[in-house]
Design a protein that fits this description.
single chain, alpha/beta, 6-stranded mixed sheet, two-stranded antiparallel sheet, 8 helices, 42% helix, 24% strand, globular
Length: 237
């Protein structure tokens, strides 16, 4: 009985490390923010703040570990939607090879189709082939807009199977439809699995009353702001 309880409350090491990494890299910030959707949020994630070589190396490793945990080794290609997904696909392909000894290819779309040269067309990197198994990789999904653009490109390039989507953080907020999370909307609409390295529940649980660099990240006051935000915008279980 005690063992089951332990499993339920156990958060994998790479998830704990990733949460600290987001805070230390100034990617996950707490305060008062107005999101693109117009929502006022007590937290904000800016994946563009991963800029150094060591940060990008670690980021790729966390994605690789999450992909391995969620999907195993049964895939061939990492597809990163332009522009933010391009470096993600590259660093994760490198990390996957290093950590698991499996060569996976990277592929991305171009915003502007290239009409000359050996690599002309709408895609960058590996040329998708019939039978390929693809994992989509993104930073954070608050709406499924980018998938609307990229899924048809991937499916149109060859007869591939999209195994799933991996993002770094699941904000656990209702998406465009107003009923379920953006990740669940994508799953329902396109029929492939969706996962995140961590969820906002993981983040709040791990950082509540926890000190990083000598400062408590989520104190009682911030915790109540986050709780209020989720009362309003959170996915109802």
């Amino acid at each position: 009985m005690g063992e089951t309880h332990y499993e339920e409350n156990f958060m994998e090491n790479y998830k704990q490390e990733f949460i600290e990494f987001m805070v230390e890299s100034d990617v996950l910030k707490f305060g008062d923010f107005t999101l693109k959707s117009g929502r006022k949020s007590p937290f904000f994630m800016n994946a563009g703040a991963y800029v150094t070589g060591s940060q990008l190396e670690r980021l790729g490793e966390y994605y690789a570990k999450a992909i391995h945990a969620c999907y195993g080794d049964d895939f061939d290609v990492l597809f990163g939607p332009a522009y933010k997904g391009i470096p993600l696909a590259v660093v994760t392909a490198i990390a996957y090879s290093k950590l698991y000894g499996k060569e996976v290819k990277y592929c991305s779309d171009r915003k502007e189709v290239k009409d000359h040269g050996a690599d002309k067309g709408g895609l960058l990197g590996y040329k998708l082939q019939d039978g390929d198994r693809v994992i989509m990789i993104e930073d954070v999904t608050t709406s499924g807009k980018s998938m609307e653009e990229t899924v048809p490109k991937v499916k149109g390039a060859a007869d591939v199977t999209i195994v799933g989507l991996i993002v770094s953080l699941n904000r656990l907020e209702v998406g465009l439809g107003g009923k379920m999370s953006a990740l669940d909307e994508i799953k329902e609409k396109y029929g492939f699995d969706t996962n995140a390295i961590v969820t906002m529940n993981d983040v709040t649980e791990y950082l509540y009353n926890k000190e990083i660099d000598g400062k408590v990240v989520i104190d009682d006051s911030l915790k109540s702001q986050i709780d209020s935000y989720y009362d309003k915008y959170g996915v109802k279980e």
